[in-house]
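Progress report, Aim 2. The chain analyzed during this reporting quarter is listed below.
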Amino acid sequence: MYSSNIGAMVVKKRIPVIPSERIEQAIFWLRGQKVMLSTHLAELYQVEPRVMIQAVKRNMERFPDDFMFQLTDDEFSNLKSQIVISRRNGVKSLLLTY
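Predicted structure tokens for the chain:
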């Protein structure tokens, strides 16, 4: 739980706890690194993938150069055969990984 001050009123909000198993299932080894797909990360943050990608791209200066990379067609095909990815979930370009 966290508090935020809005004028003289203090608002307390509950932040939902995401089970560690759900997070662990969304982590993959790719190019020798542990990564999460943009679609899975957006799901954890409860936003559409395109919204999250736009936010990251607007704030690129806040992230290190190696923060994300784009999957190649072959990488996407390999992941698609390993997990259930039927489409790119609204992402028109190749999936990004973080």
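Residues 18-97 form one domain. The mean pLDDT is 76. These observations will guide the mutagenesis work planned for the next reporting period.
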